[in-house]
Design a protein that fits this description.
Layout: H1 2-13, H2 19-23, H3 26-29, H4 50-53, H5 58-61, E1 77-82, H6 87-97, E2 108-113, H7 119-132, E3 137-143, H8 146-150, E4 155-158, H9 170-191, E5 197-200, H10 205-214, E6 224-226, H11 229-243, E7 250-251, E8 254-256, E9 264-266, E10 271-272, E11 280-281, H12 282-286, H13 289-311, H14 317-332, E12 340-345, E13 357-365, E14 368-371, H15 379-403
Parallel strand pairs: 1-2, 1-4, 2-3, 4-5, 5-6
Antiparallel strand pairs: 7-10, 8-9, 10-11, 12-13, 13-14
Helix pairs in contact: 6-14, 9-10, 9-15, 10-15, 11-13
């Protein structure tokens, strides 16, 4: 029975172990680690695994306690993806179906929503999913009806949003999206699981999330989030590139605020592993405040615009991968000591007005996020936080005026 439990846990967290966890694992060091050699999994022969026998196996003794309980029930996770005929969704859906989000043993039922003019394209996506013969996909529903799409879903990933068009003012964009996310918030309130986890990707993501959350009063506010993990990943990549180190040695960067050009990528609490010390602060490792306070921040803030210039289309694969990272950490738990960035409902911490959807440093366990509190905010950082807060408050005021809230 214990070996079966180990196999089940492994199935859900494979690919989610950190370098630090595997480096400290006797099975990894003896080339018998299931994360390193999944074809030679010792979980089914636990009496032969040095990590299990020594009580140090991260599959058996650590990660299970961090997982969202819904993942251990043996039933398919119902996942709704909106804007399912679009570019981001085209990358994302196949990542979900292949096990990258919930693990290689967790079955999923896909609920794909898009507007009626996209039904033909959506049918093509469905055919491709079926042609892949994913063993984890237990069913696919394609629809343009929110009621059908959100019925009993456990996870809702709101990718679809009205795109900003040439000559469109920000208020016009907010007005268009206010109606979309009002309707989707109400549909989730009426039909989704009472513990549905919601991630808003469609821009302006923070304010769209705020609208959906306020239009779903029966659902926990803590179950709503907006995507800033793409910015978080971009920040880590810039640091790794600057230092010429592996990306997985860069830890605890933070994205504060809005997913916009006012966001604040902050390295104040971050460190680099083994460069040259076990935990070298990023500021010390880079040793160039001019770059960190100017070019680094601007590069992360403007990265999306630069990608559009380069490929005449917005980020798709990197955005989809960030969605996978966000949901996987939220539901499977973050590694010990690791901080990630999520835009969530403010409780007033760090002098951010309560109720705003604001990107904060968080950790995750048991399917719940916890804000990291008590971090020192410098004068430089305070100015950056105030700027992005002001933008979010203005967006909130405009959006709520359209909705009569």
């Amino acid at each position: 029975m214990e070996s079966q439990n180990a196999q089940r846990r492994l199935g859900n967290i494979y690919g989610h172990l950190t370098t630090e966890e595997t480096s400290q694992c006797p099975a990894s060091n003896s080339n018998k680690c299931p994360a390193m050699n999944p074809g030679k999994c010792p979980a089914s022969n636990s009496d032969k695994c040095p990590a299990i026998n020594s009580g140090k196996c991260p599959v058996m003794f650590t990660s299970q306690a961090k997982m969202w309980p819904r993942l251990t029930q043996g039933e398919p996770i119902r996942v709704c993806v909106t804007g399912a005929a679009g570019n981001i969704a085209y990358s994302l859906i196949f990542m979900i179906a292949s096990g990258h989000m919930f693990g290689p043993k967790q079955r999923v039922a896909l609920h794909l929503l898009d507007i009626p003019p996209m039904e033909k394209v959506l049918k093509g996506v469905e055919m491709e999913i079926l042609d892949c013969a994913f063993p984890l996909v237990s069913g696919v529903i394609c629809t343009s009806e929110p009621k059908v799409a959100f019925m009993n879903v456990d996870v809702a990933i709101l990718v679809g949003a009205f795109p900003r068009q040439k000559g469109m003012e920000r208020k016009d964009l907010l007005k268009k999206n206010a109606e979309i996310f009002k309707a989707q918030g109400k549909a989730m309130n009426d039909y989704a699981s009472r513990n549905v986890k919601v991630l808003v990707v469609g821009n302006p993501a923070n304010t769209n999330c705020l609208i959906a959350m306020n239009c779903a009063p029966d659902l926990p506010k803590s179950n709503f989030s907006a995507l800033t993990r793409l910015d978080h990943n971009r920040a880590k990549a810039q640091i790794a590139q600057n230092l010429k180190v592996p990306l997985d040695t860069v830890h605890n960067v933070v994205i504060w605020g809005n997913h916009s050009a006012t966001q604040y990528p902050d390295i104040s609490y971050g460190y680099v592993g083994n460069h040259p010390h076990i935990r070298t602060p990023i500021r010390s490792a880079v040793n160039n405040d001019q770059w960190l306070q100017n070019e680094f921040i601007a590069t992360v803030q403007q990265r999306g615009a630069e990608i559009i210039k380069a490929r005449n289309s917005s980020s798709a694969a990197s955005a989809a991968w960030a969605v996978v990272n966000h949901m996987r950490d939220w539901l499977l738990g973050t590694p010990e000591g690791e901080i990630v960035s999520m835009a969530v409902c403010s409780d007033g911490s760090y002098d951010i007005p309560a109720g705003l959807i604001f990107s904060f440093p968080v950790t995750c366990r048991n399917g719940e996020w916890t804000m990291v509190k008590g971090l020192k905010v410098t004068e430089f950082s305070r100015k950056k936080l105030d700027l992005t807060t002001q933008e979010l408050q203005e967006e909130k005021q405009d959006a709520f005026s359209f909705l009569g809230i």
